[in-house]
TrEMBL record:
Gene that this sequence comes from: sil1
GO terms of biological process kind: protein transport
Source species, domain of life: Eukaryota
Region (Disordered): 53-75
Source organism phylogeny: Eukaryota, Metazoa, Chordata, Craniata, Vertebrata
Boundaries of every Nucleotide exchange factor Fes1 domain copy: 161-234
A GO cellular-component term linked to this record: endoplasmic reticulum lumen
Pfam families to which the protein is assigned, alphabetical: Fes1
Biased segments, Basic and acidic residues type: 57-67
Subcellular location, record wording: Endoplasmic reticulum lumen
Keyword tags: Endoplasmic reticulum, Glycoprotein, Protein transport, Signal, Translocation, Transport
Primary localization class, coarse: endoplasmic reticulum
Record flagged with keyword Isomerase: no
Organism the protein comes from: Sinocyclocheilus anshuiensis
Protein name: Nucleotide exchange factor SIL1
UniProt KW Signal keyword: yes
């Protein structure tokens, strides 16, 4: 039963995973629907295992009826007695399935059990059949037990032909092994992720496909490559290179979708990050950022750049060599790209902090060789001097004018992260000094309202601490 339940969970999981991809596949639709119904039925049956009745041992006074204890437990916790068409003695602690006949053997003083006439058909001999699940009388009461004892005393136990019985069971319920085979056959009709990806890549790579079809294929791929294995399969299938090549296609919608797939595939996936860098992705992404594109495309491209650089010092030094900081500086200052500004400084801030954290970790850990290697790689990423050179000491303060708390918070954190390199410039920036004292006033008031509702360390208090820290350090 545990096995069946796990199998059901597995099947339902597979349904969840494949459902989205299958939506448009009408040919499989019918078999999927049937398969879904059968899985749901089997799984639903399995969950409703009959409530077991355990008969408490140690009651001497049989004439007063049984002292029973009804327990609504999971039947897996109990040793469940499997009645047959013959009377069998019940051992202490054994639970009796609902619908069984129970009688007292007056000679031995022990309880004996056999199948109930009606329910009998549902119990197989080997207990290895689905039919053993009794769905019709999930529980029975002490009253019913007494009633069936009374019937037995009245001699109502007609013997049932056991051979006939078993055949009936066979006819009604198929063994689990057989059902499993059927499910496996159905399983083969459902494509695996690898098969789905192969089909999508073919659709995408086919010169006869329309742009719409190609975009659909890319968006379906994007959904799949969130899984680490699928992203790695995308690489081994040659799909990564196809996606990278499409970054400089002439259709902006294809560019956008390709950047989206790329960003998702490399997120937290170091081996795929390496492949993307070696496939020349970074150069193409920077070209998209440096040339005129709609903001929607740039958003996805920035996402891909950020995912590619995260925790990957090799890509970060590559980014510096390709003039990535300059590309971001120009983008930041291009009118109309305001919605992208906070994303841009987030990319830069994350790189600064990553390097800082890795050197701090080095101070309290016993350095091992891989840590030394990481330190060496991050040492090659010399971002802060480039930021100063590209004018970021005066670009970041511009973001403090934003009405968004989130944007101000990011700006303040970045300003603090660049303090050592930018301090002189900050001090000579009257606009920055003015914004900081304005923000200090605003957040002091906001903190009061936060405290009125009982919040001591709220979001505004956090921002105020950043502002105060800036003021002190200047
Ligand atoms: C594209 O369509 C043409 C004509 O319909 C067909 O001959 C060709 O095999 C197709 N190409 C691919 C790659 O499917
Ligand atoms: C894409 O199509 C070309 C021929 O049109 C083929 O050589 C190449 O292997 C295909 N790539 C993938 C990843 O399917
Ligand atoms: C994209 O760039 C590659 C090389 O960087 C080039 O071979 C290819 O022709 C370009 N594709 C388009 C559609 O411009």
């Amino acid at each position: 039963m545990i096995y069946l339940r796990a199998y059901c969970d597995f099947l339902l999981y597979k349904i969840m995973m494949t459902r989205r991809i299958m939506q448009k596949k009408w040919r499989l639709g019918l078999s999927i629907a049937l398969w879904l119904v059968s899985v749901h039925l089997i799984c639903a049956h399995n969950e409703k295992s009959p409530t077991a009745l355990s008969i408490k041992e140690g009651s001497d006074d049989h004439s007063k009826g049984e002292e029973t204890l009804l327990e609504d437990e999971d039947s897996e916790d109990l040793e469940v007695f499997r009645p047959t068409d013959k009377w069998q003695t019940l051992k202490p602690g054994q639970a009796v399935p609902a619908g069984s006949h129970v009688r007292l053997n007056l000679q031995t003083g022990q309880r004996e059990v056999k199948m109930g006439e009606e329910e009998g058909l549902k119990y197989g001999r080997d207990g290895n059949r689905l039919g053993m699940l009794n769905l019709h009388s999930p529980s029975f009461t002490a009253e019913e037990l007494k009633e069936s004892l009374k019937k037995l005393k009245e001699g109502m136990d007609d013997p049932v032909d056991s051979k006939q019985d078993e055949n009936a069971v066979r006819a009604q319920f198929r063994p689990i092994e057989e059902l499993k085979k059927d499910m496996e056959a159905l399983d083969m009709l459902v494509e695996t992720d690898v098969q789905v990806m192969r089909r999508l890549l073919n659709q995408f790579n086919n010169t006869n496909s329309t742009t719409e079809e190609k975009i659909t294929a890319l968006l379906d791929l994007e959904y799949l490559v969130h899984q680490v294995d699928n992203a790695q399969n995308l690489v081994s299938m040659g799909g990564m290179q196809l996606v990278i090549n499409v970054l400089n296609s002439t259709d902006i919608r294809l560019q956008e979708s390709a950047a989206f797939v790329l960003g998702s595939a490399v997120s937290s996936n170091p081996s795929v990050q390496v492949e993307a860098i070696e496939g020349g992705a970074l150069q193409k992404l920077l070209t998209l950022l440096a040339t005129q594109r709609p903001i929607t495309v740039k958003k996805k491209v920035l996402f891909a750049v950020a995912s590619l650089l995260r925790h990957f010092p090799f890509a970060q030094s590559h980014f510096l060599k390709l003039g990535g900081v300059q590309v971001l500086s120009e983008l930041f200052q291009t009118p109309g790209t305001e919605p992208l500004r906070v994303r841009i400084i987030t990319v830069l801030y994350d790189m600064i902090i990553e390097k800082e954290l890795i050197s701090q970790v080095g101070m309290d850990l016993i350095p091992d060789s891989s840590h030394q290697e990481r330190l060496r790689q991050y040492a090659e990423v010399s971002l802060l001097p480039v930021l100063v050179e590209q004018g970021w000491c005066s670009l970041v303060p511009e973001l403090l004018a934003s009405p968004e708390h989130d944007c101000r918070e990011k700006a303040l954190r970045t300003l603090l992260a660049m303090m050592a390199q930018c301090q002189t410039q900050y001090k000579q920036n009257p606009a920055l000094t003015a914004s900081l004292s304005e923000l200090q006033k605003q957040y002091q008031e906001l903190v009061l309202t936060e405290q009125e509702v009982g919040e001591q360390d709220g979001y505004f208090a956090e921002i105020l601490a950043l502002v105060d820290s800036m003021v002190v350090k200047m």
